Amino acid sequence: MSQHIYKHGDVEVRMGYDRPLDFVFCTVAVRGEIEYSNLGDPNAGTECQDVEYYRPILETLSIQVPDAMFMEIKEDQINRVGNRVRIYE
Predict the structure, then answer these.
(1) Is residue 18 in a domain?
(2) Which residues, given as ranges, of the chain have pLDDT below 50?
(3) With 67 labelled, which of 4, 12, 22, 61 sits at a CA distance of 20 to 30 A?
């Protein structure tokens, strides 16, 4: 699984590509409490193949992550990358 982590104040966004299950994921925590998880989203779950699906969700939560996160997750998915962690601040 690749993980791309964006931290800003009390907000932590974890996105990435799960190689064994072949899907992209997104979790948002604020002050340690989960605000959004793809696993609780019936339109995403473990079926989502397009990381861009999460961009409007993050915008709804007033969170803007670096564009590089989306680009690198797309590359991870194309190249089936696992065991990669990148932190953005």
Answers:
(1) yes
(2) none
(3) 22
